[in-house]
Design a protein that fits this description.
- The chain is mainly α.
- It is built from 1 helix and no strands.
- The protein is rod-shaped, with a radius of gyration of 21 Å.
- It starts with 7 loop residues before the first helix and ends with a helix.
- The model has no long low-confidence stretch (mean pLDDT 86).
Length: 51
């Protein structure tokens, strides 16, 4: 299926969009992992204070 014929700029734009999406997903995953670790650290500290 060809959306815009043989226009290479269309494919390049689509590739750029996918790359931006991949970068965004990597950034979100890194931030989530960092926040998750901070939450676990805070929970461990809270539980240590209660015991």
């Amino acid at each position: 299926m060809k959306l815009h014929g043989d226009d290479p700029t269309w494919e390049r734009r689509l590739d750029d969009w996918y790359e931006r999406l991949a970068q965004w997903r990597r950034q979100v995953n890194e931030e989530y992992a960092e926040n998750d670790e901070n939450c676990h650290r805070a929970l461990r500290g809270y539980l240590a204070l209660r015991s």
